Amino acid sequence: MTSAIGLNGLQKTYPGSPPVRALRNADLTINDNEFFTLLGPSGCGKTTLLRLMAGFEVPTAGELTLFGDDIAHLPPEKRPINTVFQHYSLFPHMTVLDNVAFGLKRLGKPDGEAKKMAQEMLDLVHLSEFGARKPDQLSGGQQQRVALARALAPHPRVLLLDEPLSALDLKLRQSMRAELKRLQRETGITFVFVTHDQEEALAMSDRIAVMSQGEIQQVGDPATIYEFPENRFVAEFIGDADFFEAEALGGSRYELSNGEILIGPETKTASGAEVTLFFRPEKATLKHAGEGVRGRVSDILYLGNSTDYVVELAQGGALTVRSENHKDGTAIADVGADVVVEIDPAAVRVVTP
Amino acid sequence: MMRLGDMIRSHMALIPAMVVIGFFMILPILIILIYSFLAPGDYGGVKPEFSIDAYQRLLFQRDLFDHMVFDPAYLKIAFRSVWVAVVSVVGCLILGFPVAYYIACQPEERRNIYLLLITIPFWTNLLIRTYCWILVLRDTGLINGGLMRLGLIDEPLSLLYTEGAIALGLIYTYVPFMVLPIYAALERLDRRLIEAARDLYSSRWVALRHVVIPLAMPGIVAGSILVFIPALGAFIAPDLLGGGKNLMLGSLVQLQFSSARNWPFGSALAMIIMAMVLISLFFYARSARKNGGGIQH
C-alpha cells in the first residue's frame, strides 16, 4: 500500500506564555485511496493537523510527506491538496460554476476547459442546474456540495474535509455521509476527514485516528477502535462505556472490592494489581438472579429501540446496561429492583487509565 | 394610508437633518442656480436681469467686434481639473489600499489605534499643512536643497507650481478618505476566503486580485468617490501649490467670487462641477446595478 501522507514526529507549538502545544510528536501514515478520519474533542489538535497538511500552518518540528515528498514548508498553493472548509468559504462574488472552476483556472486550464470540467463536477454532486447562481442563493446542503465540487475539481492527491457536515441538520448530515463515501470510492482520492462526531467517524471511515490534547491516542479501523480501545480516553470518547475498578487475581479472574469474582480477559498483569475493567453497555445482560455483578436499578432511560438501565453496584459505583426492548414495551426491571449484571467475559477489556 | 401624524412620528428622527440640509444645502444650491442665470453686479453680487452669459463664457469669448468666438481656455481648466482629480484618486488608491489592508489584518484591539493615527493630519489646519508642502517643494526647499547638497543635481528641479505638486497636495489631503472605506470593506472580508483561494492554487498576489480586491470593490468605489469629488472642487492645494498658473475649477470659482467679481460666472462654474459629479455618480450607480452591487469582475 502506498502512503499518501506521512507524519514523522510532527509538532506544532504556538508561541505564548505558556506556549500552546497544539500537536505533540505525531507519527502517522495515511494510505492512498483511504477514507481516514481524525477524531477528537475540540482543542485536541485535529484541526491543527489538518491545517498543517493544507499548508496554512508551518510545523515547529518533524516531517510531513505527501507520497514520499517532503511538503512541510511548501505554501498551500504548491500542494496538490484541497480542502473542504467547515463554513464552506465559497467566493460570494462568483457564480457557483466560477467557484468550482477557480482552482482549475489557477492551474492554467483555459477558460472553456475549466468551465467544462467544473460543470462535470457539478453533475457529480447533483447540482447540474445551479452553475449560474450565486452561493448565497443556495441552501446550506447545496453550498456544502459546491464546496466539495470546488475542492475535488482540480483532482487533488488528497482531499481534506474540516468538519464539513457540522453545519447541516441531522437528516441532511446522514445523507451526506453516504454521498461522501460514494465520492471517495468514485474518485479514488484519499480523504482526510476531521470530526468530533464519533458516530460519523465510525460510519464513514476506513481507519480512524483518535486524538486528545495534541496527541494521537489510537489508530485503527472503526471496529478495532470500538471493541479494543487502548486507553480510557478512547473507550469513553467512542460510544458509551462502563468502567469499574478491580484487583487482578491472575489468569482471567478479577476480584471486585466486595469480594465478588468476575471472569474477564486473560491478563499478564501481576496478581494483586489494581486494574480498570471496561465493557460496552450492550455487551451486558440484566438478570434477576444468577452469576454476575450485584446491584440495584437506580434509573431507567427509554431510548426507543433499546433501554439503558443504570445499576448501582453493591461494591460502589454504577454501570449502565443497554438492553433491547421487549416487543410489548414492558421493562425488564423496575427502579429499585435488585439485579445481577451478567457480563460476557469475551467483551470485558482491561484498559490503561 | 398612513396618516400625516404617523408619518411625522415615524420619520421624526430625520427632521433635524432635513431642516439643516434644506436650509444650508438645498436653499444655497437654488440661490447659486438662480445667480448663474443673472448678470454680474458692478462691485460683485448680481443684477436682477436674466442672462445666459455666464454659461456662454465657458466656451465662447466675445471678440473686439462683439462676435462669439470659441475659446477652449475654461474647457482646458475643466479637463485639467478632472485629470488632476483622477490622478489624485489613483494616487490615494495606491497609497491607501495597502494601509487599509494592513490595518484590517491587525488584531482587533490595535486596529482602532491605527485608525486614530490615520486621522492625525486632520488635527492641524489644512492651510498650514499645504503651506508646509511649499517649504518642501520650493527651489530652496527640503528636496531641492537636499539633492543639491548631495551633488545629485546642479540647479533646482521645478517641483512647486506644477500639476504634480497639486496632485501631491490633493493626495496628501484626501488619502484618509480612501483608507477608511476600504478598511471598512476589508474588515468585513472573511479571511477564510483568502485561505480558500490559497488552497486552490493561488499565490498571495493572485488571491489578492481574484478574491480580496473584488470583495473590497464597494469600499474602493466609495473611497474613490470621496476623494474625486472634493479633489475636483479643491482650491487650497491648486492655489498654493499650483501657484495660480495652473488654474483648476475650484480656484477659478473662488477667483470669480473674490477678485474677478463675477458671481454669475462663479455660480455657473459651481453648477458645472456639480453636474459633472452627479453624472459620474449616475454612471457608477447604473453599472453597479447591472453588475449586482459592483463587486463582480
Automatic annotation (TrEMBL), chain B:
- Chief place of localization: membrane
One of the protein's GO biological processes: transmembrane transport
Keyword annotations for this protein, in alphabetical order, are:
Cell membrane, Membrane, Transmembrane, Transmembrane helix, Transport
The record's annotation in InterPro entries points to: MetI-like, MetI-like_sf
Q: Where are the transmembrane segments?
A: 12-38, 77-101, 113-136, 165-186, 207-237, 265-285
Where in this chain does the record put each ABC transmembrane type-1 domain?
A: 78-284
The record's Gene Ontology cellular component field reads: plasma membrane
Q: Indicate how the chain sits in the lipid bilayer.
A: Multi-pass membrane protein
Q: Carries keyword Transmembrane? A: yes
Q: Which domain of life is it from?
A: Bacteria
Q: Where in the cell is it found?
A: Cell membrane
Pfam families of this UniProt entry?
BPD_transp_1
Q: Which family does it belong to?
A: Belongs to the binding-protein-dependent transport system permease family. CysTW subfamily.
Q: What is this protein called?
A: Spermidine/putrescine transport system permease protein
| Organism in which the protein naturally occurs | Cohaesibacter gelatinilyticus
